[in-house]
Amino acid sequence: MWESYSAFANTRGGEILLGIKEKKGKFTLEGIKNPAPLVKNIWDTVNNTNKVSHNLLNEVDVSVITIAEKQLIRILVPRAPREIRPIYINGNPLAGSYVRRYEADQKCLPDAVTRMIAEREDVRDNRILEGYGLDDIDAESLRIYRQMFIDAKPQGHPFLEQDTAGFLRSIKAWRKDRKTQQEGLTLAGLVMFGTWDAIQDALPNYFVDYQEKDDSSHRWIDRVFPDGSWSGNIFDFYRKTFRKLTADFKIGFQLKDGQRIDDTPAHEAIREALVNMLAHADYTSDSSLFIEKHPDFIGFRNPGLMRVPVKDAIAGGDSLCRNPAIHQMFLNIGLSEKAGSGIPKIYSNSRRQNWQIPNLYEKDSPEQTLLELRMVNLVSEEMHSNLIELFGASYNALSELKRSILITASTESWFNHERICSLTSKHTRDITLALSQLVKGGYLASGGNHKGKVYHLKGVDVPTPDNDAGKGITFVSSPDLSQLSLFGENEEFDSKSPDLNVESPDFDSKSPELSFESPDLNIESPDLDEEKQLWQELLEIASPIRNGSYRAKRNDIEKVIIQLCEKSDQKYLGLTDIAKLLGRNTDTLRKSYPSPMLKNQQLTLAYPTKPNHPNQGYKIKKGRS
Question: How high is the pLDDT of residue 336?
């Protein structure tokens, strides 16, 4: 069980139950006849530093409970504080550190252990980079920054009277270690103002990427990334991308102190989101900083988990910025709020713009923080009128949470409990109660059970395999027996396979269903040509996983699944076809991938109330970042 203790402590905490037997995914209550000696052994072990690096348990965390007259031992493992992670066993952090990934305890790779140890530091961007100096600063970037500093402080400032070295020292881009007397460019200074060559030498995995996409084609139509034509540092990345992110915003005519204000709550929300991403990123990670813009959606993704719980970040006031010097550099030129107020500002300005509530969440593998802004008016006048017409005056008497749920129901054909949780900072119990009351009050209908339960407006059909809405869903067509000849001599479909033996009594080539003269099998059909071309392209996308000689990482497989679904566009991909494309067992794939990818809002279901249906299909979720 100590592998699970380590895994839960290093991830998000969890619960261990002793006295339950698992076999082939089924659980049986076995019970423990005499739990007292085992409880004592648990306390002895957790306090033995040769076995467990830190004891995180309080007395109330270990208890004996009774279920169906069987005694079990319950252990509640909290998430370990950042300052003492990783929690490891058997005295060796490299060999004894685990993380929880979905339903399994996975041993940490050495790089993951190193990152956890590095994350113990309160400040990550003040590290002096040995061998780096003023020659590694992009002169134009620094010149523009100094000018923006002047513009932000028209009354003057002592920093502006200093030479280049003094100015960099004052803004913490240059530092001297008082103990060792070593001095030089800091990580903050290099990332903020460095040249591309210098940044690459110090941080080989550093990469910033902005993509603007056209929803009709799913291809990027504009992109900013280090291509050699500019410095590649985050200051220039900010300047280039902020203009593009806000280019479509309409600015009303406003005056303040006689001066026109070319800024709106929308601009402020985008600015805070962009600075927040740059100031909180883990620049030692092997993941990139990524921004994806759609006509009605902007997603920000930075490497590294948050240092405070998401709900605390939304509430504001408590900040543990990973890169405080970088944050201060943006603050110096008026591009950020004080520490701890940025995320609340994003949420409040989204409300002022009448946008949908932002979605801030984390991914564990790889460790990333994601922020999604949906620039869709939450309640237009037309929608407000429609809701009153639909529900009557009682709509205005509902709580803000319930009205928000009904607004979501009117803009989305169906949604689940988790979706509402992502749109509000309300507690999950409040959401559960509100949904239940809306169903009882006749505002909503629901379908499915437990984790598959979804909600929708009455009269809206949620697709199932048996109703008209479900029958109207389009799936990618994989080749069947009668179409094999259309795909040529493809190694994926060997006509000599014993499973396709034309001598088999089960295979009647004279069957009218298999007649090549059938009007349903017109080999000149343009639809079949398109399906053939699409399937070949999907095979090409999946080939690195299917034909790879190495054991593919989970992240690599997830990326390919996303690419397959993106290529399929508006069509759904069946799980069997995904397994065929990847060369994986269908049951294994079902257990390992769809559920977490649905939870992370990367994919959406064809039949949301039937998550385990054998003919289930998956499609890219619009607005995924």
Answer: 84
The CATH number covering residue 609 comes to: 1.10.10.10
397 in helix, strand or coil?
helix
Q: How far apart are CA 361 and CA 371, in angstroms?
A: 7
Whether residues 324 and 389 share a domain: the answer is no
Residue 431: HSE in the Cβ half-sphere, 13 Å Cα cutoff: 17
- Residues 445, 306, single domain; the answer is no
What mean pLDDT is predicted for residues 535-558?
A: 84
> What's at 619, amino acid-wise?
K
The DSSP bridge pattern shows strands 208-214 and 289-294 to be parallel
pLDDT of 513: 44
Q: What angle do CA 604, 26, 362 make, to 5 degrees?
A: 35
Query: Which tokens hold the place of 467?
Result: 């109703």
Pick the more confident residue, 512 or 364.
364
- Please give the C-alpha separations between residue 15 and each of 72, 73, 115, 287, 338, in angstroms, as whole numbers: 12, 10, 25, 30, 37
Count: domains in the chain: 4
Strand partners, 64: 73
DSSP-based three-state secondary structure for 90? coil
**Position 520 in a domain:** no
Asked if 332 and 149 touch (Cβ cutoff 8 Å), the reply is yes
Strand partners, 12: none
DSSP letters, 578-607, are HHHHHT--HHHHHHHTHHHHHHTTSEEESS
Three-state DSSP state, 259: strand
If you average pLDDT over residues 229-240, what whole number do you get?
98
The answer on pLDDT for 555 being more than 70 is yes
Gap between the Cα atoms of 255 and 258, Å rounded: 6
Number of neighbours of residue 130 by Cβ within 10 angstroms: 9
Higher-scoring residue by pLDDT: 62, 600: 62
Strands 62-67 and 26-29: unpaired
The pLDDT of residue 497: 42
pLDDT of residue 151: 92
d(CA 342, CA 42): 43
More confident residue, 469 or 78: 78
SS3 for 209? strand
Cβ atoms of 463 and 447 within 8 Å: the answer is: no
Query: Which residues form the domain of 596?
Result: 528-620
CA Rg value for the chain: 28
State the DSSP code for 358.
Answer: P
CB 125 within 8 A of CB 325: yes
Mean pLDDT across the chain: 85
DSSP-assigned states of every residue in 138-184:
-HHHHHHHHHHHHHH-TT--GGGGS-HHHHHHHTTSEEE-TTT--EE
